[in-house]
Amino acid sequence: MSKTDNFGFVKSAALTVLVDNKADLIVESSDQVKYFTDKPLLAEHGLSVLIQLDESDQKILWDAGVSKIALIENMRRMKLDNKNIKKIALSHGHSDHFAAMTDVLIGLDLLPEEKEWKAGVKEKDIEEWLVDSQIPIIAHPAAFRERWWEKDDGTMIGPFLPPPLEQWQAAGAEIVLTDEPYQLAPGCWTTGYIPRKSFETSGRSVRARYRNGSEMLLDDLEDDQAVVINVKSKGLVVLSGCAHSGIVNTIEYARNISGVARVHAVIGGYHLALAEENEINQTIAYFKEIQPHLVVPSHCTGFKAISRFEQEMPDPFIEGVVGATYLL
Ligand SMILES: [Fe+2]
Ligand SMILES: [Fe+2]
Q: How far is the CA of 304 from the centre of ligand 1 (A)?
């Protein structure tokens, strides 16, 4: 079986942005992107995207944003169905992607209805129901680090607490930890650890630390991952979180694990907010080479890099806002 056969494909995908840094009501829908503009939506420094494959009822949630209000309220205003979110994937252990997760698990009421068991019910049936009634959260093990920051003078800022694993489990989540590519559905995978091979450096810092017992180690954000969808006859859709590994590394690894070279869309954070001019230049040069059909730098990409993408690649560029649904 070839790599691409193993990866699988979908005929179509729809990605709805539930949480992002920007909101805008004066936007025009097209064949490729439909905007919800009936009511204002809430924006915050965070990210969450609802993934629908092949017009299936069953949906996948990518990250949860920060506040207990934004995701839940935006879904309510957009009249999106809560019931069919069957899997959650976490991009990495930064709070702008996970802090709302407990409230989302509880508030969206994702778990199936309670069941009335009749006398004589078999233990096996109850066990099966218990397994089915959990919602998997797929994450890299390093997402659960207690993170710190070392200032120039050596003082430590922190702790930035890890995601509350036990709270999530108590709210019905089954935590699936892996650093490998993980199949969310045929043709739709999380990447796991993304090898860092390119020129990109701005997504990580030599000042970042995490605690391992009594030791403080360099935090290279190994947990950072993306979602990759192979859309038949179009190519890859790369959905990043923060792209701390580098957006070029992320795309290259997406091509590697799928065996698909063509890149249709790159949506999410590109993490270029603090990048040097040279890194932005090289990133744009790479994008010009691979020519994606849609370029949607949002969340942590930063105004400067976003405006450069808009100037240099006006045709594929779309400004990322909350309430956008990309039809892929
Ligand atoms: Fe982020
Ligand atoms: Fe981040």
A: 17
**CA proximity to 82, closest of 50, 110, 62, 123:** 110
Domain ranges of the chain: 13-327
> How confident is the model at residue 126, as a pLDDT?
82
Which secondary structure element, helix H or strand E, spans residue 123, and what is its range?
Answer: helix 123-132
pLDDT at 127: 81
Per-residue confidence band for 123, with pLDDT thresholds at 50, 70 and 90 = confident
How many angstroms is it from 94 CA to the middle of ligand 1? 7
Cα(144)–Cα(267) distance, rounded to whole angstroms?
A: 25
CATH of 13-327, one of 3.60.15.10, 3.40.640.10, 3.40.1190.10, 3.30.1540.20: 3.60.15.10
Rounded Cα distance, 80 and 39, in Å: 14
Alpha helices in 145-199 (DSSP H): 165-170
Distance 242 CA to ligand 1 centre (A): 5
Position 112 pLDDT exceeds 70: no
The pTM score is 0.94
Q: Tokens in use for 221?
A: 């954000």
| Å from CA of 97 to ligand 1 middle | 6
The more confidently predicted of residues 99 and 120 is 99
